Amino acid sequence: MPWLVIAGVLVAALSLRGPIVAPTPVLIDIEDDLGINAATAGLLTTAPVLMFAVLTPVAALVIRRAGAEIALMLSLSGVLAGTLVRALPGFGWMLAGSLIIGASITIGNVVIPVIIRRDVAPERVSLVTAAYTATLNAGSLLTSLATVPLASVVGWNAALVIWGAVTLAGAVLWGVHLARERRAGRSWGTRESGEQQEVATRPAPAAAGSLDSASLTGPMPAVGAGTRERTTLRRPVVWLLVGAFGAQTFGYYAMSTWLPTLVVDTLGVGQAAAGALASIFQGVGIVGAFLVPLLARFAPPVVPAAMVCFCWLALSTGLLLAPGAFVVWVGLGAIAHAGGFVVIFTLLVGVARSDAEAAGMSALVQGAGYGIGALGAPLLGAVHESTGGWSVPLMIMVAVAGAYAVLLLSAFTAARRSRS
To answer: 20-34, 146-160, 175-189, 202-216: which has the minimum mean pLDDT?
Structure first.
């Protein structure tokens, strides 16, 4: 097994979600210091998600042109640059830095599954991909837990910059890999390399409805270069998956952004304690990424999907009706967001009728879904500010969770009809 490659991928993964979540525990301080409202503050997490929606096809082109190794280094370098830009005085620079971070992470989202498929033995791909997905959540957990303690010592602005050290470590480790490969005489970005990566980015075929997909675990399926078949847009299951993924990302980024503030307001705890409690939403997600494939070994595919729907509904309904049991509801929510990605994209692969259709469906679901998801944080922030509380925002989240359940379970029904 290429241990240096795996180590580089896992360290890089710490910087592919953590920088987005890092500002959320100190959003109250950011609003006060910069004189912005809650909806505007929500743009700090919305901007990267918009980049996911817009730039995924561009990221695939960068990978084919530059090669996977250079593309990952570009991703890490861009995240580091965005972290530094975000530290410059003024909200405009913060927003610009967030856009740079989002654009750079988009490349990483697409290229790492390519590297895993290419360099890891087939029997190890499932394990390494699950470890990668768990590390994405670990990066978010780390920033959620430690940003407030760091900010209490050096200020919130410097605290956000400090997280650049994690990105720098990933770039250094990946640079060691690049240097070793260069000494071995390997080159990247050639026509042959591009062709190999084009093949690598095509989703692997899977049994329809199977939840044992190794290559599409988590919110970062690779988008291939194939042309979308015209009939794809006429398939109901495709649009149901678009809606389900949109609701999934809406819920994840809305909750990731506002959970710390919600905890401060509803439980009356300090910011450090709120950050620690909110980090459960990221930390338990490490388990959730493994739970759905495990459950699918012993139950029909619709059972894990129903479990994920229940967990999303429990999160929003529980926080609305019984906020004192916060730990329980957020733990279930973590299972929902991590397991939901696995369910959605594995079903996508299962219903695709060709590699080209799978690639086109993946691009459509990601692009439209992340576009919908980008609305979550600013919408909940605006509603919270206008109502002065969290009841109405949580009612919105209950409605989104209900829509998610209807869309996802309907997608399973549509998938069965398309196979009959």
So the answer is: 202-216
b/e code 4-17 from CB counts within 10 Å (16+ = b): ebbebbbbbbbbbb
Q: What is the pTM of this model?
A: 0.75
Between the two ends of the chain, the Cα-to-Cα distance in Å is 41
Q: Which two tokens stand for residue 25?
A: 């525990």
| pLDDT over 70, % of the chain | 85
The dihedrals phi and psi of 90, each to the nearest 5 degrees, come to 105, 145
Residues counted in the chain: 420
Exposed e or buried b per residue across 194-205, where buried means at least 16 C-beta atoms within 10 angstroms of its C-beta: bebbbebbbbbe
Number of H helices, E strands in the chain: 19, 0
Residue 286 token pair:
């490490």
pLDDT tens figures, 314-324: 999 999 999 98
Strands (E) in 116-227, as ranges, are none
Q: Are 350 and 415 in contact (CB under 8 A)?
A: yes
Per-residue model confidence (pLDDT) at position 193: 42
Residues 6+ apart with CB under 8 A from 229: 353, 354, 356, 357, 360
Mean pLDDT of the chain: 81
Least confident of 75-84, 170-179, 353-362, 388-397: 353-362
Residue 163 DSSP code: T
Other CB atoms within 10 Å distance of the CB of residue 183: 8
Answer whether residue 226 shows pLDDT above 50. Answer: no
Q: Are 360 and 227 in contact (CB under 8 A)?
A: yes
Alpha carbon 79 to chain centroid, angstroms? 15
CA distance 13 to 128: 12
> Are 116 and 196 a contacting pair, CB within 8 Å?
no
